[in-house]
Amino acid sequence: MPVLPLFRDDFYLSTAEATVTAVRESGAIELDQTCFYAASGGQPGDTGFLERADGTKIQLGQTRHGAAKDIVIHVPLEGEPQLLVGEKLTLHVDWPRRYRLMRMHTACHLLSVVCQYPITGAAVGEDESRVDFDMTDIIDKGEVTARLMQLVTQDHPVYVQWITDEELAANPGIVKSKNVRPPVGLGRVSLVCIGDNSSVDSQPCGGTHVARTGEIGAIHIAKIEKKGKENRRFRIRFATPEDGVAV
Question: Could you give the 3-state DSSP secondary structure of residue 6?
Answer without folding.
Answer: helix
